[in-house]
Design goal:
The protein is an alpha+beta fold. The protein has helices at residues 12-23, 81-97, 106-112, 115-124, 138-145, 181-186, 241-254, 283-289, 293-303, and strands at 2-7, 28-32, 41-45, 50-54, 59-61, 65-70, 102-103, 132-135, 150-153, 159-162, 165-168, 172-174, 189-193, 199-206, 209-216, 233-237, 258-265, 271-277. The protein is globular, with a radius of gyration of 21 Å.
């Protein structure tokens, strides 16, 4: 039996998982899904719920997969819109039909990365959460956050590509006087009360293990990602038991084995939930703190082996 590492060719997180699997001499096969369709052929039989994956160097049967690792979904970048659409629909449907034990299950990742969903669940499991509105109605924002200030954040992620140029859209603190009604109406956004001053805390959950790290940045940066890299430092910390419990419970409800939480610890000691990223990177935290996160992820992956079958071997 084989562990499947489902990745893209430039995924450094997948590289870390592969290195650890090799160190343990665990049989694995890496498939870079961005090789599809020209460097990767896939055929799926719905009657047997089985698939064959074929590259120039390997042939993998879904029934030979004991567990699968997948950090994030991939969308086709093919120039033809028909090819892009058919590729994305096929792959999304395929992963939903593969009943391997996953770290993480793509269906769970899709739901957990829905920020509207995760903030509601975070409050239900006991996290302190900031006052929040999603949408594009400026009047509601004025009424909710008066007298301000407030924080504006993107819903779909911190990066966007325009005309071939990658731009970063970090969280911004704004006053209500600066709020442009036309701009708010033009595109939905996340609006939240400002929970800083406080310290950013990245919490990485891998199975039942929790790794927490303080992120220190110079004064004046609301979003630590906007600070110059050389000015940011990382320090392992321990979390209060109730915060650990909330992290594990949210992962349980979301069906996540792995999750990267962003919290803020206020001067009072209160930890405020900002978001959980089911597709978050961890290599930079591991490198800076020597926390053994990759080992914990592979421990969880290996422990998942022996779950549901992924289809009959060679039946397609």
């Amino acid at each position: 039996m084989t562990i499947l590492v489902l990745a893209v060719s430039n995924d450094l997180a997948a590289d870390l998982v592969v290195i650890e699997l090799r160190r343990r001499a665990v049989p694995y096969q890496r498939l870079n899904i961005n090789d599809f369709p020209f460097g990767l052929e896939i055929v799926y039989d719905p009657c047997s719920a089985s698939a064959i994956f074929k590259t120039e160097n390997c042939r993998l049967y879904s029934g030979d997969v004991s567990a699968a690792w997948c950090r994030r979904s991939w969308h086709s970048t093919h120039a033809d819109p028909y090819v892009r659409r058919e590729t994305d629909f096929f792959l999304q449907g395929l992963w939903h039909e593969m009943t391997w034990p996953w770290v993480n299950d793509p269906k769970a990742v899709e739901r957990a990365n829905n920020k509207l969903w995760q903030l509601g669940v975070a409050a239900k499991v006991g996290f302190d959460t900031p006052l929040t509105l999603f949408g594009n109605q400026a009047g509601a924002v004025f009424n909710k956050f008066n007298p301000g200030p407030l924080v504006a954040k993107t819903i779909g992620g911190a990066a966007i590509e325009r005309d071939g140029i990658r731009e970063h859209l970090f969280s911004q603190s704004i006053s209500l006087d600066e709020l442009d009604s036309a701009a708010v109406k033009a595109a939905p956004c996340i609006f939240q009360e400002q929970v800083k001053p406080g310290v950013d805390v990245r919490v990485t959950v891998a199975g039942e293990l929790i790794f927490a790290t303080d992120i220190a940045v110079p004064p004046g940066y609301l979003d630590w990602r906007a600070a110059p890299r050389e000015t940011v430092s990382y320090h392992p910390v321990d979390l209060p038991a109730e915060v650990k419990k909330c992290c594990l419970e949210l992962c349980r409800i979301a069906g996540l084995t792995y999750g990267a939480f962003d919290l803020v610890r206020q001067p009072s000691g209160r930890h405020v939930f900002l978001e959980v990223n089911a597709s978050g990177q961890w290599g930079w935290i591991e490198r800076a703190t020597s926390q053994r996160i990759t080992e914990a992820i592979v421990d969880a992956l290996v422990s998942h082996q022996g779950g549901q079958d992924g289809g009959e071997r060679g039946s397609t």
